[in-house]
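**Tokenised fold:**
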Amino acid sequence: MFKFYLSSLLLRKKMTKSNTSNSFLSEAKSIVLDHISNEQFGVSELADLMHMSRSSLLRKIKKQTHLSASQFIREIRLQKASALLLETELTASEISFEVGFSNPSYFTKCYREYYGYPPSETKAKKEEEEKEEKEEKEWNEGQKNEAKTKEVTIKNKNVNRYIIAIATLSILAIVYFFKDKLTSSPSKTTKEKSVAFLPFKNLSEDNSNLYFINGVMESSLNNLQKIKDLRVISRTSTEKYRNNPKTVSEIAKELQVNYLIEGSGQKIGNEVLISIQLIDANEDSPIWSEQYKYQLDNVFELQNTIAKKIAFAIEANVTPKELALIDKKPTENIIAYDYYLKGLDNQKEQNEAGLLNAILNFKKAIEQDSKYANAYAQIAISYYYLDLNKIEKKYLDNLNEYADNALLYDATSELPLIAKALYYININEFKLAIPYLEKALDYNPNASSAVLILSDLYARVVPDTNKYLTYALKGMKLNIEANDSVSKSYIYLHLSNALVQNGFAKKASEYIEESLKYNPSNPYTPYLKNFIDYANDKDLKALTHKMLIEWKKDTTRTDITQELAKMYYFQEDYTNALLYYEKYIDLLATNKIDLYPAENIKIAYTYDKMGFSKKAEQYLNKYIDYLENDESIYKEAGLAVLYLYKNEPDKAIEAYAEFGLQDDFQYWVLLFLKEDPLLKRLQSHPKYEETIKKIETQFWENHKRLKGTLEDEKLL
């Protein structure tokens, strides 16, 4: 009875919290809608009408929607605009004023960024979505009816139960006798539907046709990638096997796939000839093989046929929406397509000359077909790589223009969406890039480039430990074999970091060893390995000793210098802490950078302990400035440390309690929380144990949920 009462109470609390959240958001939305046509209505006005401070409003909206308050208001305006576009005959310009945009061009830009298409296409997109939903519903109904028909057929059979029982016993006896043989080779339907395209062989007498054969292979691969039920290895992982003597079984083992596709082709005049076979890697035997002879004008039909045949042979579940995406032609112009494939071939050279030649060929493709969305997208992507890692961005306007044109002509393919995301990444608007990348995965769940970029963004600039790990694991499964050992070392380093941040310390140890194996000279692997070792053994003195060894290898490393100072700080060795903090400060000044602003409170406390009160005040003020602009999930934890510094334990407890409600914070918070000397000021507080325990419980509950999700998705 007590358990039932407790469960009911907990449920009631959850419902109350949920209702409170919904009530707050509903009230905020209602107020925005009441002032929807007022372009001057913003965050301050909303805060006043909600009877809240601006900072409280910002924090509450951020917590419940993961949006800034201004983004929240803009989304309501855009959602209202979409409804008006569907329900009225008003023009887009008229509606822009109705929802508080004074500039129709800016409204169109914001609308396209939010929905992936311009306002003028809203009705058409809605009709298309309804059609797809109807087709999928009909398809599902068809499947149900087919199942019912089979069920009725079985029920109507007049079967002798005695004979069935005897037959069943016989079958069970046979199964028992042969059980080892039956279980030694998994059936096709229980095996993971994982597949890799090996590079096609060019059988043309003219080697200059290689780009075309590669293009046919890559387009067929791209079509397969649109099927969510399949795991399709990226081209970059299979390219290394072009002239590789390894057996099918060896390649499949390295790529961790159950099926391989081999092929050869030649282009003769106006015809293309393709021979292709699908191989069961476990049996090392072909499941299906075919030869095709197509006119060049029908090359897209050839690519689509190949993808469908492979999918059906593997018994993949292909939805009507996925079939429609596979059947969609990128262009009707074969000359444009030929230039496009030449551009892709140039792009693979991975240098400036290759990228500029690629742009020329993609532009020639557009001259042949002015609505060739993928050609526009590839030009944008080429401009992105031309500007990559350069302080001065020369091609930003070009990148944005071609990405917008790509979306204008096709907003339902991954390439235009990725191109627009790269524009936002190049202007450091990372949060705006994420919706485009996630939308790209709706149309191509196996797009490894989108997966790897998302993993990086969630690791560095929009911290979310759960998504970081999820995308890092997906990225490894899609891009498992990089072209060189250095790249592969960084893939495993990236994954190790994601694992340990989420509390999978032992698993992280396995992958960090892989990173070292592939590139012992990787400068970041030993650094992370030291911290992963600490996550497993909790030996702070050993970690300090290891970091000192790493620092001596390169005393100009800002990251290691700062970490070494922090280790001494945690051990209350303020003399050594100050020694390395001052080296760290000198490195920041020399390199004209400002890294790790959250460390300023530790620097301030160290100066204070060493008797340098003015220096302590200087770095305390720097820390306060940092906190004022901090919109991350760690803000409350940062405030708690500030309150501890000021010896305000009640406020610190309150801030830690607020932080304990957050999801997706890093394991490092738990590992080093109690090591901070400032926390000792809180240990006598009556709510200390309870508050710290809640933070720990929140982390491990989130860890458990994440582990279950990753296991269900066969990522862990």
Observations:
- The two ends are 39 Å apart (CA to CA).
